[in-house]
Amino acid sequence: MKKIITVIGARPQIIKASAISRAIQQNFSTQLEEIIVHTGQHYDHNMSQVFFDELGIPEPNYNLDIKSGSHGEQTAKMIQGLEDIIQKENPIGIILYGDTNSTLAGAIAASKIDVPIIHVEAGLRSFNKRMPEEINRIMCDHVSTLLFSPTKTGYDNLLNEGMKADNKAPFDIDNPKIYHSGDVMYDNSLHFSTLSDEKSSILSEIGVNPNEFILCTIHRNYNTDNKERLTNIFDALDTIANQANIKIILPLHPRTKKLMKTHLKEDVLKRVSTNDKIIIIDPVSFLDMIALEKNSALITTDSGGVQKEAYFFEKPCVIMRSETEWIELVKNGTATIADADKDKIVNDTLQFLQNKAQLSFPPIFGDGKTGSFICQEILNL
Ligand code: UD1
Ligand code: UDP
User: Fold this and answer.
1) How far is the CA of 219 from the centre of ligand 1 (A)?
2) Tens digit of pLDDT for each residue in 255-279?
């Protein structure tokens, strides 16, 4: 039996990790022992525990309970806690997901004590280093031993940064192995879609009909923390709801919920609060989120994960960022980059709503079995 440590902390990491935990439970339970460490970066019930309850992920063996803080404070506390656990558990490797501060902390803790890092969602780049996530992902990739990129673009980014396609085993931090592996999030969307159909009643709970609403999420720090950008985005949503006569459902991240009260210009806050077509709800469970995604007319978001899920469920997507790591979605013509530009958000949304029928979504995120592929490669490490 080989022992691995999985580090999770933020909502999307808990969801991503469920694909590997499921693969271990189904196919590798006699070969891989998984120790789960939750940093506690996300801690509200609907940002963390709800996913353990719903997605069949084992409860964490450890919870560092770090919660929120400045980047330095939060990351430092995580590094210290993770180092102790890694030394105590002595795993053959540590699995890190994506690009959050929990990812960076795991990368620093493990690499300094010579424990191989398996980075799931490697190679993605926005080429915007003002994003904390861009720093986290570059630093993690460059101390990793096995790097699993969900897309060909991600794989090519790693080659462009000097990693080699033909390194031979045994792999280590100086001789890493890079893969174009497919996306564990695609595994999850396939796996949980039927369960969502059976279990979710979110549409009737909030009183919307299939295809008669837009789903929107906003949480990226450069949108929430910037008064002008946040105001432009909400102004655009209010305009769309009125012009297209369509409901907009916003399961709002706690960060956005807090900041919209202080950061929106008064008249926009008033319009949004009194517009009965704009429905702001608390963050929802993953099965409810899938139900909202599958039944939406269109998705508008600044989330990385939600952009892709729009594609998995064949919905057009308006990306409220100035760039995306998931460039394939834009090249395919099913997503558009609207930044926080009010007119562009409104026009792109209205245009997509009119021309939806012409869009196509060829499969580009793997075969839905990426979790098992990654486990097999970890065993060969
Ligand atoms: C983090 C990740 C981001 C990811 C997002 C997923 C970093 C730098 N950012 O951003 O890449 O896309 O998670 O959702 O790691 N809060 C709560 N309750 C919670 C969690 C957060 O109220 O359970 C509030 C706190 O006010 C906190 C703020 O949200 O200060 C931001 O949380 P934090 O984890 O620092 O960053 P996210 O914006 O969630
Ligand atoms: N998600 C969810 N409930 C919500 C909002 C998002 O379950 O209310 C899921 C979503 O389906 C996706 C993941 O959380 O799988 C994306 O996380 P988030 O947008 O917080 O972060 P990002 O992907 O941008 O890092």
Assistant:
1) 8
2) 999 999 999 999 999 999 999 999 9
Q: What is the pLDDT of residues 34-65, one digit of tens each?
A: 999 999 999 999 999 999 999 989 999 999 99
Q: What is the CATH number of the domain that holds 290?
A: 3.40.50.2000
Within this chain, do residues 247 and 374 fall inside the same structural domain, yes or no? no
Domain-located, residue 258: yes
Closest residue CA from atom 33 of ligand 1 = 68
Domain count, the chain: 2
DSSP 222-244: HHHS-HHHHHHHHHHHHHHHHHT
**The dihedral sign for the CA sequence 124, 17, 305, 329:** positive
Cα 79 to middle of ligand 1, angstroms: 17
The answer as to whether 300 is a domain residue is yes
Does some domain include residue 189? no
- Domain region containing 150: 2-183+366-380
Q: What is the pTM of this model?
A: 0.98
Q: Are residues 31 and 133 in the same domain?
A: yes
For residue 294, give the ligand nearest its CA: 2
| pLDDT per residue as tens digits for the range 162-187 | 999 999 999 999 999 999 999 999 99
For residue 335, the SS3 value is strand
